[in-house]
Amino acid sequence: MHITTSQTSENRKRHGEHVLISLTYIGKNIEMKTGIELTRALEQWRRYFEESGLVSALVINDGYFVQNIQGSRPAVNTALAKIVDEHFKILPNIVKLEEIEALRWDGFVTKHLTESVEDEEYALKSFSAGSDFNPYLMKSTQIESFLKVIFEDG
């Protein structure tokens, strides 16, 4: 049986590969991975996302993180299932899911918030409801603005 390009393209559309989505979720850093262990984990995820055709923006501190994943609908759903399955301790909470026209991030970008004055300004500049960075206290619009400011300024 010979498969034409139009049949292959049609098969992809049946699974939603032509639809780009953006998924933002927050989580708690319960495992408290730091230093080299965290670096290794982030590198594994970067490679996984790259192989899956996904892009991502991740902001992490010692207690919490915010991640936005963008790509085809099936790839994002597979990544979310992998996150929930392999990292159930992070208690992921989806805060926003939407269809998009184009990918926003350039690969897998990360920002580790430290206790520096600059990072405190990012985290607290009208985005967080408390004195510390806690995305669970933020509305989805605040989280979206927060990601935009962090990665456009930094």
UniProtKB/TrEMBL annotation:
It holds the Pfam family BLUF. Residues 20-111 form the BLUF domain. InterPro entries: Acylphosphatase-like_dom_sf, BLUF_domain. GO terms for molecular function: blue light photoreceptor activity; FAD binding. Gene3D superfamilies: 3.30.70.100. This is FAD-dependent sensor of blue light. It comes from Psychrobacter fozii.
